[in-house]
Amino acid sequence: MKPIFQLPVDSALTRAVSEEWGLLPLRVPAGWHVISNALDARRLPDGRVEANDSQDLYWARTLAPPWLHAEQGAETSNLRVREIHLDVGWYVFGFRVVVLAPDWDHVHATYTTADLDDLVATIEKWMEMITLQGRLPESWASVR
Fold it and tell me: Which among 112, 103, 117 is positioned nearest to 140, based on CA atoms?
């Protein structure tokens, strides 16, 4: 499966993507540090959108308060002080979003989707859920 999508006409991504490769708009809440962002796309001549097909599309992590030592954050259940990572990649089945709390040995949630709008919405929702609501998302898979 190639990362080529027919986006709805009323989609915000439809209006944001041009013929040139460029980053997709993404609302990142306060409390996140974006380490890597390769979530880029371009509009094809037929109107469809082609997205980057890397397994390393996006990586962000929460930022603990500067007065907190790393050991203190690991010992608490308060997500606002723990280190949480969000990793996004493209695979043969579609996009995969993974929440690591705090590393690959501690995968908390995964989500797969073959829909670009759904991917962006999930990334934004999960980042907000973690930093603003103080809860971790649950794993599930999109049927799109």
Answer: 112
Query: Which residue in this structure is represented by tokens 């980042």?
Result: 127
Beta bridge partners of 89: 96
First to last CA, the chain: 13
pTM of the model: 0.86
Summarize pLDDT for 60-109 with one digit per residue, the tens. 999 876 666 656 555 556 666 678 999 999 998 899 999 998 889 999 99
Measured distance CA(144)–CA(139) in Å, rounded = 16
CA gap 64, 53 in Å, rounded: 31
Q: What is the SS3 assignment for 13?
A: helix
Contact 136, 109 (CB under 8 A): yes
Long-range contacts formed by 100-106: CB under 8 A, 24+ apart? 101/136, 102/74
How far apart, in whole angstroms, are the C-alpha atoms of residue 119 and residue 115? 6
pLDDT tens for each residue of 117-142:
999 999 999 999 998 888 899 876 55
* Alpha-helical regions (H) of 25-141: 70-74, 116-131
Tell the residue number behind the tokens 């590393």, with chain if given.
Answer: 103
